[in-house]
Write a structure and sequence with these properties.
The complex is a heterodimer of chains A (about 220) and B (about 400). Helices cover about 10% and strands about 40% of the residues of chain A. With about 220 residues, chain A is mainly beta. In chain A, a hairpin with a 6-residue loop joins strand 15 and strand 16. In chain B, strands 1-2-3-4-5-9-10-11-12-13-14-15-16-19-20-21 form a 16-stranded antiparallel barrel. Chain B has a three-stranded antiparallel β-sheet with strand order 7-6-8, with no helix packed on it. Chain B has a two-stranded antiparallel sheet with strand order 17-18. The longest helix of chain B has 15 residues. Classes of the chains: A mainly beta (about 220), B mainly beta (about 400). Chains A and B meet through strand 2, strand 8 and strand 9 of A and strand 1, strand 2, strand 11, strand 13 and strand 19 of B. Strand 2 of chain A pairs parallel with strand 1 of chain B, so a sheet runs across the interface.
């Protein structure tokens, strides 16, 4: 009898703890962003090696697929782990994707899918690196050691512009082509909800979720 | 005149597109320089004005390159350049009249994604070789311009070839003073700025093959003073990428090369002809890059007798030739991101020409230049470069060393 009571008590404790740690809160919504392309484009007038400037039509090179939504816990500390299989491709003188969200400690592989050289480097303070000229099909690893925005450039094609967004949270996602996002399995708590757009200022909002809540948060990034 | 043409072009393009989506692609830079040179420096020899060899801090050059796209096929390309006249240096912002504002590029371009062919007309970049591809100082890892693009050989751009002009001290005053004819002595193989007025047809398979043929109103070695130059030139460049780490180009140019206003009325512009063939190459791997050019030029010129102040006619046309070679080696330090070291070996040698007394001798003195450069990119807008160069002109004990510390801001 005592053993049965003990098992029942342990089961209660375990199930209660599990429920508290892995709540099924959800945050979803839609990001409305500017649809008109940027009129002024810096660094796009020519290539340093005299070749023609190219731009990829890959969907992941388009601005609307490179908006990142992230939730940063304010009421507890979230553990982050390095991601696997994080990579950025260079194709038709374009970084694909243009924005890659990762966590600190992730190794990002740079893969050249063009038939010519790129010379990828970053001059972001604290995250400076230069991978030199790497041949096609030869992934080159770079470990991300710092949180924040890490800007990528190519020394040969100055119009190429990419970003590694190193986040201090495991809760993030990329919006779909319609601008929708959904973050699941969020613990109860207070968060800073952040929208990263490569051509706009960061937009944030503080939200509180608990008890398997499904919260809709929409953003309108259109210029006034 | 230029502005009018620009406005007309703009209106034309607007009218072509009912649903015009304007876009401006642009690059810009500002280059400031602390410099000092040896006592025998000269604008024609090493792009250093002989009156400004002392230490000075100046604006070297500022550029605004912009492309205005109105629809997918039509584009206007411009390059506005602020440059020192004859490499004069007088201290930053002290003498604005030493600077010239040049509309280096102003052209209209048609291209289509459906065809590899395109056409450009107006003032445009010389397609010859590979040096002109690096239009901004911020693109150049060595600050000095290669000898083939800057060194003033023993040919007056106004009268042609004068035997022994640079060897004979008799004429030294003519070279140094503001002589109405000889002030423009010293013709480079190709001009340093490299902008011409004409029509260019291009065939482009991106990053694989590029062929250009330009019919220009200027000679490729003429400095770009006038919007409409004199004498048609044909310049072509064929560029082929063999594989991901190597690229070769072949260039050809044929043109008259002096200014029509200055030559004798017994001669025509076609009496002064320049033919140039060039091979350019580029290899790169990891943190290394090797590139350069071999350029051979032939000049067909009448001989000018400086004492008679006239040409020696009667079939006295000579063919002079010169060959240049330069090799740039660059290494980026992987342990110091943004830093590099570069070295250039540059040589310009001359064939034989008449010595003015029935004999033959090298028509100008061989030049060898060694240049070393270090650069550091502080951030994506700001770079520092240190460049040291020394050149040796055969048979001369000249101090033509240069020290240049440049800071470039670019956008």
């Amino acid at each position: 009898m005592i053993q049965r009571l003990l098992f029942f008590f342990l089961f209660l404790v375990f199930s209660t703890k599990t429920s508290a740690q892995f709540s099924e809160n959800e945050v979803f919504g839609k990001i409305t962003f500017p649809t008109s392309p940027k009129v002024l484009k810096r660094g796009t007038a020519y290539n340093r090696d005299g070749t023609k400037v190219m731009h990829s039509n890959d969907p992941m090179a388009k601005i609307n697929r490179n908006i990142i939504v992230s939730l940063h816990p304010l009421s507890f500390k979230a553990k982050t782990q390095p991601l696997n299989n994080a990579s950025i491709t260079q194709k038709e003188q374009t970084f694909i994707p243009s924005v890659l969200p990762v966590t600190k400690g992730t190794t990002v592989y740079f893969l050249n899918e063009d038939e010519f050289f790129h010379n990828i480097y970053s001059l972001t303070p604290g995250s400076r690196f230069n991978i030199g000229r790497r041949p096609p099909g030869d992934p080159y690893p770079v470990k991300i050691k710092k949180n924040g925005v890490i800007k990528l450039s190519c020394d040969i094609h100055p119009h190429m512009y990419g970003i590694i967004l190193s986040l201090d949270t495991p809760y993030f996602c990329r919006v779909d082509k319609a601008g929708n996002y959904r973050l699941k399995n969020l613990p109860d708590g207070t968060y800073k909800l952040s929208i990263f757009h490569p051509q706009e200022k960061e937009t944030t909002r503080t939200i509180k979720i608990s008890g398997r809540e499904k919260k809709e948060v929409n953003f309108d990034l259109k210029r006034p | 005149m230029k502005n009018t043409i620009l406005v007309i072009c703009c209106l034309f393009l607007f009218s072509l597109s009912g649903n015009a989506q304007f876009q401006m692609d642009w690059n810009a830079d500002i280059n400031l320089e602390l410099s000092v040179a040896g006592s025998d420096a000269h604008y024609w020899y090493n792009n250093f004005h002989r009156d400004y060899t002392n230490t000075s801090f100046d604006l070297t050059q500022a550029n605004l390159i912009a492309g205005f796209g109105f629809n997918p096929s039509w584009k206007i390309n411009t390059h506005l350049l602020i440059n020192r006249q004859a490499a004069q240096r007088a201290g930053l912002f002290r003498k604005f009249d030493l600077y010239e504002i040049v509309y280096a590029k102003l052209n209209i371009q048609w291209s289509s994604s459906n065809t590899p062919w395109s056409i450009v007309g107006g003032r445009l970049m010389n397609p010859f070789g590979q040096f002109y591809g690096n239009q901004l100082y911020s693109d150049r890892h060595i600050l000095d311009t290669p000898l083939a693009y800057s060194y003033g050989t023993n040919i007056s751009k106004n009268v042609g070839f004068v035997p022994l002009l640079v060897e004979d001290d008799t004429y030294s005053e003519l070279l140094r003073d503001d002589h109405p004819i000889f002030r423009d002595w010293g013709t480079p193989v190709l001009s340093r700025l490299g902008y011409l007025t004409g029509i260019q047809i291009q065939y482009d398979l991106p990053e694989k093959l590029n062929a250009s043929i330009l019919f220009a109103k200027n000679a490729p070695n003429a400095y770009a003073e006038s919007f409409f130059g004199e004498g048609w030139s044909l310049i072509s460049h064929f560029n082929y990428r063999i594989n991901y780490f190597s690229k070769f180009g072949l260039s050809f140019s044929y043109s008259p090369f002096v200014e029509e206003n200055y030559i004798s009325n017994r001669l025509t512009l076609s009496d002064f002809r320049q033919t140039i063939i060039g091979l350019d190459y580029s290899f790169g791997y990891g943190f290394w890059e090797l590139s350069g050019e071999i350029i051979t030029a032939w000049y067909s010129v009448p001989i000018f007798n400086i004492l008679l102040d006239d040409y020696i006619l009667g079939g006295n046309f000579f063919t002079l030739n010169t060959t240049s070679f330069y090799m740039d080696l660059k290494y980026e330090f992987p342990f110091l991101t943004g830093a590099y070291a570069a070295y250039r070996f540059d040589i310009l040698s001359f064939g034989e020409g008449p010595d003015g007394s029935g004999g033959r001798t090298a028509w100008d003195q061989e030049v060898i230049r060694n240049a070393l450069s270090f650069g550091y990119r502080i951030n994506s807008f700001w770079e520092l470069k240190l460049s040291l160069a020394d050149q040796n002109v055969k048979g001369r004990d000249w101090d033509q060393s240069t020290f240049r510390l440049m800071t470039s801001f670019f956008w």
